[in-house]
C-alpha cells in the first residue's frame, strides 16, 4: 500500500470499557495493512496524512480537523448543544413546531417550560413568564392529587438522572429548590454542614445547575415486567427505550436497530403515591429508569433487549390494557426513526448556531424514548425522554 493511502488512527477514548471495543471494531472492519495506530498527531508523516481521531471531545484537535478537512475525520462535532443539553433541545423543538405546526415532533415531544434560577428565593422571578406552569397550578388548586396535572423537573445540564423531581404545585416546586439551597454561612461547622446537605440531596445545589426545564409528566406510561421476572401486576415497571444513532457528515443519521429496554428499580407507583412524601428517595426508584442510579443489586435484571419484549402486552394496573397489535414494536420503531430524523433536522436547519455538523466528522448519540398510553387507552407511541 502506498504510504499516503494509509489511515493513521489516534484511538484514545480514556475509557477502559469503550477503548477495546473501538479497537476491536477497527480490527474487524479494516485490513491490518490499511491503518496504523498512533498516540499523537505529531507522529503523522505529514500534516496532510489521512487521520482518524477517536478520542474524548476535549482531546480532539479541532484546529487540525478544520485545517485538513479532506484528510482528517473526528468522532464528534464541534458544536452540538442543540441536541445534548435539555434546555437547548427544548428550544430547538419549540422553534421547529412553531415554524412547522404539523410536525410529528408536536406529538412525540412533550412541551417544556424553561427557566434559570440560582437560589430558591429567586424562583418567583424565574417563573414570571412560565404561563403554562401557572395555568396548570391554577387548574390543580381544587383537585385531589390523583386528578392533578403532574410535572417532571429536569436540570438542563446534568446527566445520569441527577436532580429529577416530580411536582404538581408551586409549593412543591419551591420546596424542591429550598432543599437544594446551601446552608447559611453562620451555621456552626459550615464545611461539615455543606457536605451533609450535599449528601442528602445527591450532591445537588441549585446554583451549580442553574438551567432547568419542566415538562408534563407522562402518566400512565406503558408498564412491563423486566427480563426474567414473572409477568404479574406487582412486577410491572416503568421503562424507557435507549437507542443509539450515528450522525455522519452534514448530515446523515442512522438508527441502530438493536435497542435496549431499561427498567426502573421498583414497581411503578403513581406520582401522587404517599411513598413519595414519606420516603422520596426510595419511591423515585419506581420513576427513574436511569440504571446508573441503581445499586448493583437493583441493576441486576433491569436491562433487556427491546425486540425481546412481549408481543402481547400484559394487563395494566388501574387502567384498561391499551389496544395494540402484535407488531406494536415495529410501529414504535417506525415512530422512533421518524422522530429522530426530524429532531436532527430541526437542530441542523433551525438551530445552526448551536448545532454545526461538519462534513468530516461523525458522532454517536444515545437517545431515550418512552411509550405512553393515550387517554383513549390506546398505545400512545414514543415520546422523547421520560
Named CATH topology of the largest domain:
D-amino Acid Aminotransferase, Chain A, domain 1
Number of strands: 15
What's the overall geometry? Answer: globular
Output the radius of gyration: 23 Å
Poorly predicted regions are 190-200
Q: Which CATH class of the largest domain?
A: Alpha Beta
Q: What's the rounded overall pLDDT mean? A: 87
Q: Percent range for helical residues?
A: 25-40%
- Element-level helix/strand string: EHEEHEHHHEHHEEHHHEEEEEHHHEHEE
- Helix/strand-derived category reads alpha+beta
Counting structural domains, the number is 3
Q: Characterize the main sheet.
A: 7 strands, antiparallel
Based on the structure given, which CATH architecture of the largest domain is correct? 2-Layer Sandwich
Distance between the termini: 51 Å
**Helix segment tally:** 14
Beta-strand percentage range: 15-25%
Amino acid at each position: 500500500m502506498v504510504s499516503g493511502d494509509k489511515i493513521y488512527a489516534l484511538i484514545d477514548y480514556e475509557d477502559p470499557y469503550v477503548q477495546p471495543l473501538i479497537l476491536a471494531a477497527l480490527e474487524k472492519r479494516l485490513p491490518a495493512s490499511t491503518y496504523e495506530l498512533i498516540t499523537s498527531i505529531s507522529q503523522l508523516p505529514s500534516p496532510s496524512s489521512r487521520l482518524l481521531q477517536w478520542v474524548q471531545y476535549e482531546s480532539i484537535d479541532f484546529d487540525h480537523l478544520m485545517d485538513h478537512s479532506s484528510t482528517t475525520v473526528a468522532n464528534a462535532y464541534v458544536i452540538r448543544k442543540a441536541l445534548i443539553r435539555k434546555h437547548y433541545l427544548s428550544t430547538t423543538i419549540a422553534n421547529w413546531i412553531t415554524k412547522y405546526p404539523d410536525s410529528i415532533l408536536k406529538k412525540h415531544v412533550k412541551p417544556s417550560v424553561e427557566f434559570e434560577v440560582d437560589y430558591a428565593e429567586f424562583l418567583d422571578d424565574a417563573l414570571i413568564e412560565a404561563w403554562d406552569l401557572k395555568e396548570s397550578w391554577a387548574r390543580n388548586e381544587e383537585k385531589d392529587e390523583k386528578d392533578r396535572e403532574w410535572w417532571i423537573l429536569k436540570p438542563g445540564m446534568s446527566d445520569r438522572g441527577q436532580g429529577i423531581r416530580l411536582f404538581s404545585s408551586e409549593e412543591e416546586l419551591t420546596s424542591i429548590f429550598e432543599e437544594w439551597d446551601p446552608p447559611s454561612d453562620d451555621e456552626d461547622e459550615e464545611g461539615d454542614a455543606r457536605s451533609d446537605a450535599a449528601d442528602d440531596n445527591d450532591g445537588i445545589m441549585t446554583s451549580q445547575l442553574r438551567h432547568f426545564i419542566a415538562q408534563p409528566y407522562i402518566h400512565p406510561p406503558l408498564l412491563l415486567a423486566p427480563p426474567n421476572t414473572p409477568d404479574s401486576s406487582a412486577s410491572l415497571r416503568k421503562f424507557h427505550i435507549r437507542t443509539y444513532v450515528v450522525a455522519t457528515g452534514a448530515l446523515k443519521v442512522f438508527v441502530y436497530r438493536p435497542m435496549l429496554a431499561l427498567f426502573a428499580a421498583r414497581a411503578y407507583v403513581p406520582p401522587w403515591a404517599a411513598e413519595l412524601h414519606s420516603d422520596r428517595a426510595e419511591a423515585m426508584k419506581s420513576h427513574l429508569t436511569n440504571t446508573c442510579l441503581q445499586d448493583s443489586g437493583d441493576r441486576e435484571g433491569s436491562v433487556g433487549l427491546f425486540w425481546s419484549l412481549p408481543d402481547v402486552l400484559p394487563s395494566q394496573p388501574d387502567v384498561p390494557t391499551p389496544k395494540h397489535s402484535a407488531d406494536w414494536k415495529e410501529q414504535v420503531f417506525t415512530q422512533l426513526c421518524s422522530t429522530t430524523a426530524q429532531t436532527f433536522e430541526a437542530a441542523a436547519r433551525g438551530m445552526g448556531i448551536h448545532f454545526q455538523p461538519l462534513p468530516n466528522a461523525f458522532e454517536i448519540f444515545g437517545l431515550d424514548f418512552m411509550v405512553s398510553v393515550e387517554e383513549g387507552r390506546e398505545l400512545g407511541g414514543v415520546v422523547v425522554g421520560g
